[in-house]
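Thread title: Can someone regenerate the structure for this chain?

I was given the following input by a collaborator and told the matching C-alpha cells would be attached. They weren't. Posting the sequence so someone can regenerate them.
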Amino acid sequence: MKRALFLACVLTVAVSPVDLCAQVRLGVHGSWAEDADWGLGGRVAVQLPVDRVPLVLVGSFDWFWPEADEIEDYWEINANLVMRPTLELIAGYFGIGLNLAHTVAEDPFRAGTFSETKAGINLVGGLIYDGILTPYGEVRYEVGGGEQFVVTVGIGINLATFTGIR
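Best answer:
Regenerated them for you:
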C-alpha cells in the first residue's frame, strides 16, 4: 500500500512538474480525535492536473498525545483524494482516502509494550480559504484504522506565492 501511494505521487509529479509547483500547498494543523485526544501535524495538498473535475491529493501526518495511561504513542498517516466542487475564495471539499494508524501501548498481560498498526478508510470533508495563506477546517471519520472521528484546524501556504508560477 505504501509503495502504491508513493508511485502515484511520483507519477503525478512526472506528468506535470512545472504546473505542479503552482498547485502545491503545505500546512500545519492541530487535531482533536474522539479516542486519541489532541495532536499536531502537517499536510501537503497537490491539485491534480485533471481537466473536468477539480481533484486534490491531500496527505497528512498527525501525532497525538492520548490521555489514556496505557497508550504511550499514537500517530496516523492519511492519504485522501478530495473533490473541490467550487474553486472560489472559500471552497468546500469532500472525499475518501486511506488511513494508517499506529499505536504503542502497555501490554496488560506481560511486562513491556506492544505495537499495532491498522489500515482503514477515511471519509473526509472540510472548508478552505483560497488565498496566499490558506486556513482550513476538516472533519474525518475513520472506518477501520484509527476508528475515530477527527476534527482538524490548520493553516497552509500556497507555494505559488513564493515561486512566482501561476
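The chain has one domain: 2-163.
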